[in-house]
Write a structure and sequence with these properties.
Distance between the termini: 22 Å
Largest sheet: 5 strands, antiparallel
Oligomer: single chain
Number of strands: 16
Helix content: 25-40%
Radius of gyration: 20 Å
Shape: globular
Structural class: alpha+beta
CATH architecture of the largest domain: 2-Layer Sandwich
């Protein structure tokens, strides 16, 4: 198969693994920097241009999007162009955009009855006291809606600090969420790697000493973890709610069951592969080999 990986940097671990594993399985793999693409949007023959090359519907069989949060809008536009050309996309553009909007994704998870921390959102300073009260009082977690990898996530230990931080963010016109602090999670969370309708790997991430964020980018450590049936069901349901075929679902263990923190549409492979010893990249390709062919056959049948 001819497979395109949308990635800004082919030397990143995740991109490099996808190249190596794809080629080892006999596929022709190309890395395209989505910011260097431009699109010819026509009804008759939509095409994608990358540097001096032009790609049409028959040039790729599947696309693996590795789109960074800072370029979500343009990256999704490029991915939509592949969708217009009938190329199979592991994650569709609308699902990626949906998951990147923290507020929208939490609202969708809530509507689907998936467990989430109590969350409040407002834009006016007069609502600060009510926001803090709504999530059960301090300590509270304050999150920038646009933040990634733990950036823009603050734990406010008391109401005075929480009020000052929220007021400062609002003064900068930043969109924030205020969430209850899940004390019993003890600075750890679980990353479930979902492909299709299965959790194919899972790891527990623990925060570094003096830190409450468990992100590996912030010094957290990862280890193999055994999931409960409820945690597996919750992770799969969260992925399905977002419409993602491949994602990382971050779960907190709470006294009232598993709670979803975030659904990541471009989960990294390094931490999960090292912690679990599993060939996650290979399982991604197994999913593509099965579903891209099936999708193409459906398209042919419609013709």
């Amino acid at each position: 198969m001819r497979i395109a990986i949308l990635s800004r940097n082919k030397n990143l671990y995740s991109t490099r693994r996808l190249i190596e594993v794809g080629e080892a399985r006999g596929h022709e793999v190309r890395v395209l920097d989505h910011l260097k693409c431009f699109m010819d949007i026509t009804s008759e023959k939509p095409t994608l241009h990358y540097r001096s090359e032009e790609f049409g519907p028959d040039d790729f069989d599947a696309v693996i999007p590795r789109i960074g949060a800072s370029v979500t809008s343009f990256g999704c536009a490029v991915l939509r162009q592949f969708e217009m050309m009938g190329v199979y996309c592991v994650n569709e553009s609308v699902a990626i955009a949906r998951s990147r909007d923290k507020l929208r994704s939490l609202q969708l998870l809530s509507r689907s009855k998936v467990g989430i921390p109590v969350t409040a959102y407002a834009r006016n300073i007069e609502s600060i006291d009510a926001l803090i009260h709504e999530v059960g009082g301090a300590p509270v977690v304050i999150k920038l809606i646009e933040g990634t990898q733990g950036i823009g996530v603050v734990l406010a230990e008391n109401k005075k600090i929480a009020s000052s931080i929220i007021e400062a963010f609002m003064g900068l016109n930043a969109n924030i969420l205020v969430q209850e602090f899940i004390k019993e999670s003890k600075g750890s969370d679980i990353r479930c790697f979902v492909v299709g309708d299965k959790v194919i790997a899972a790891m527990e991430r623990k925060a570094a000493p003096g830190e409450f964020r468990s992100n590996l980018h912030r010094g957290g450590t990862a280890s193999l973890v055994k999931l409960s049936a409820a945690e597996r069901r919750t992770a799969v349901k969260a992925a399905a709610t977002m419409g993602l075929n491949m994602c990382g679902v971050d779960i907190l263990r709470s006294d009232r069951g598993p709670l979803i923190m975030e659904v990541n549409s471009s989960p990294g492979l390094e931490g999960i592969e090292k912690a679990t010893g599993k060939d996650v990249a290979g399982m991604i390709y197994g999913f593509i080999e099965k579903n891209a062919v099936r999708d193409k056959n459906k398209t042919k049948g419609k013709g």
